[in-house]
Amino acid sequence: MIIDCHGHFTSGPKALPEWRVKQLAAVNDPANAPKKSDLKISDDDIRSSIESGQLKLQQERGADLTIFSPIAGQMAHHLGNQQTSFVWSEVCNDLIYRVCQLYPDNFAGVCQLPQSPGESPEKCIPELRRCVEQLGFVGCNLSPDPSGGYWKDPPLTDRSFYPIYEELVRLDVPAMIHVSSSCNPCFQGTGAHYINGDTTAFMQFLTADIFKDFPTVRFIIPHGGGAVPYHWGRYRGLALDMKRPTVESMMKNIFFDTCVYHYPGVEFLTRIVPIENILFGSEMIGAVRGKDPNTGEYFDDTKKYVDACQNLSTDDRQKIFEANARRVYPRLDAQIKRRGK
Amino acid sequence: MIIDCHGHFTSGPKALPEWRVKQLAAVNDPANAPKKSDLKISDDDIRSSIESGQLKLQQERGADLTIFSPIAGQMAHHLGNQQTSFVWSEVCNDLIYRVCQLYPDNFAGVCQLPQSPGESPEKCIPELRRCVEQLGFVGCNLSPDPSGGYWKDPPLTDRSFYPIYEELVRLDVPAMIHVSSSCNPCFQGTGAHYINGDTTAFMQFLTADIFKDFPTVRFIIPHGGGAVPYHWGRYRGLALDMKRPTVESMMKNIFFDTCVYHYPGVEFLTRIVPIENILFGSEMIGAVRGKDPNTGEYFDDTKKYVDACQNLSTDDRQKIFEANARRVYPRLDAQIKRRGK
Question: I need a surface site. Which of A306, A309, B56, B145 has the fewest CB within 10 A?
């Protein structure tokens, strides 16, 4: 079984962004805000977008199941206010739920959280609980920068995040650390802000006691871990210089996906990071949509890169494609087992 | 000849930070500001710190010459105001000049610029000229974030930077893109802010016409290019998706150093990035000061990693260690030639 741990519903029906425009237009005019029920998306709309997009590519590329969440760039926690984020998160998460209900073998839900700049992360707990306990979601996305590229909120290691981590532990679900869009002209989104978010989060974890305080909390750092594997020696050395727990000891809690869009990068990842800490991911349809003219293959068809790694045994590949995801997302494992797989 | 393109005077005499404390204490009290002449550092003070620090390690590790600049983390453009930065840059650059005068075979100067948040980069030109034309410096450091971790100033591709680039072209000197310290609690300095600065700058260059407007301008992106080589496919794909000039075409203007603190990372760099675009660098004494317990070697002794790369020919190594630096820093090349080397 091949599990892609990183997919966003980027191919979703147009009614969703149209509803969002109305929501944002009414931020300061709540009487005219659209209701959730004003969003009209039929099952056929969902089937049409999924079957021509994510599901089509999933099947063409030989994956079986995608851990699926709302569009990262559209979480945009910095737009509107806390109430805007509450409603927008519910709308987006409900749509993911419908995808998972229509295609339970192909998609498992991960929710966005209603983070909002300057607001306590604790306020996200009810939506996290709803998604996991009522909608059957298997994890959440957690942004290290709800300010949208200005990094004005506290780091992930701040005590204000601790109630979230307590809840992650209680629910036994992991969080993928994933920024949203950048409104800072210094940071292009998918090439700078995304990768910086990954690198930044790792360094936050390295410099704080979060894994001492939450020994079983689990984070997926996407996009191959940002710059971390490439600079593995730097991080190992910094941890030693700072008398912090070793980078190796952080591997109880941190996992990287394979969203690295060239073969040498994926091969490098598998040689540097313990195999147990690598989860297959593609983020398709996402940041890079074209084909590499040198190979004729899609840049984000990362399964081909994992398949091609000569250094991986069959057992290694099974861990990267399936076993690690089932271990890191135990609620997904339980769902799959209930289906007899 | 082995040229280390990336060294900061981190082992400098204590009188310098003591003077800086007084300068910052008097930001709003100019009458009590210390004068430049109040900074008392003798030639023996310099010899003592250099010979027990940078020069000692340079010689132990088998390099010949370090391209040397003030401490990156202490540039701190965000402290004080424009006038603070003017004076601080002069003080720091003058000290580098003295090092280069005392050890002309071992050190070549690179200046910090008196950038200041919200101020026009053009104001840095007089100090850049002074350092290159009067002090014999061969390049400068240019911060993509004078706000110290809040990224409030325009990107490097903003027109306000164009006068600087005109001057770099006129003087025929390159700039190393290097952030200073971070006062943003989200960003640890050497592990997050530094690497993010590199990745961010590359993506700024990818998305703008700067190399069309300045076909001969040259930038060194340090720390192995941040996350860029590891995500080479992502950047190649983004450039193609965005209908931008290819990443390959950017290699006329962008160079990476070898400040990647483990052998596999340096080996990876040399397999991904054209050899002509890699300059040997160590940033010693800098971000990581300890030894790797696995090897017993200093993490930042990057010469050992380059030496160990089986994929490099003798000619490749000569380019990385010497020829590329002499090409990218023509004023350095001229100085070395004048010394008959």
Answer: B56
A283 belongs to the catalytic site: yes
* % of chain A exceeding 70 in pLDDT: 100
pLDDT for position B264? 98
A295's tokens: 């190979």
pLDDT for B312 equals 98
Closest partner residue to A230 among B145, B229, B300, by Cβ? Answer: B229
Tell me, which fold does domain B3-338 have in CATH?
Answer: TIM Barrel (3.20.20)
- Token pair 């532990």: residue: A169
How many CB atoms are closer than 10 A to CB B81? 13
Between chains, do A288 and B238 touch, taking CB under 8 Å as contact?
yes
User: Between chain A and chain B, how many beta carbons pairs sit less than 8 Å apart?
Assistant: 199
Residue tagged active-site, from A276, A283, A297, A322: A283
- Among B205, B307, B190, CA closest to A233: B190
Task: Give the burial class of A70: count Cβ atoms within 10 A of its Cβ; 0-12 exposed, 13-18 middle, 19 or more buried.
Answer: buried
Residue located via tokens 């530094």: B194
Most B CBs within 10 Å, among A188, A247, A249, to test the B interface:
A188
DSSP string, B264-329: HHHHHHHHHS-GGGEE-----SSS--SB-TTTSSBTT-HHHHHHH-TT--HHHHHIIIIIHHHHH-
Determine the residue of chain A that is closest to B144 in CA distance.
A186
Measured between alpha carbons, how far is B76 from A248 in angstroms, rounded to an integer?
Answer: 33
Distance CA A29, CA A81 (A): 12
Q: Which of B188, B205, B230 to mutate to test the interface with A (most CBs of A within 10 A)?
A: B230
pLDDT 10s digits, B136-162:
999 999 999 999 999 999 999 999 999
Distance CA A285, CA B145 (A): 32
Assess: ipTM above 0.95. yes
**Yes or no, beta carbons of A268 and B230 under 8 Å apart:** yes
- Name the packing angle between helices B15-25 and B82-102 (round to 10°): 170
Segment B291-316 mean pLDDT: 97
| Partner residue facing B191 (CB), from A224, A235, A271 | A235
The one catalytic residue in B127, B167, B267, B283 is: B283
Please name the amino acid found at residue B250.
M
- Mark yes or no for CB contact B234/A191 under 8 Å: yes
Contacts of B231 in chain A (CB under 8 A): 191, 195, 223-224, 260-261, 265
Question: Cβ–Cβ of B151/A184 closer than 8 Å?
Answer: yes
For the whole prediction, is pTM greater than 0.90?
A: yes
- DSSP annotation of B159 reads G
pLDDT digits (tens, 9 = 90+) for B99-135: 999 999 999 999 999 999 999 999 999 999 999 999 9
pLDDT score of A12:
87
Phi-psi region of A243 (alpha: psi -120 to 50; beta: other; left: phi over 0): left
Q: Cβ–Cβ of B192/A203 closer than 8 Å?
A: yes
Mean pLDDT of A5-30: 95
For residue A341, name the pLDDT band (cuts at 50, 70, 90): confident
- Could you tell me which chain B residue has the CA closest to the CA of A260? B231
pLDDT higher than threshold 90 for residue B12: no
**Predicted pLDDT at B229:** 98
Using one digit for the tens of pLDDT, what is the confidence trace for A260-285? 999 999 999 999 999 999 999 999 99
Which residues of chain A make contact with B237, given a CB cutoff of 8 A? 261, 287-290, 292, 299-300
pLDDT for position B182: 97
Inspect the interface and report whether the beta carbons of A231 and B224 lie closer than 8 Å: yes
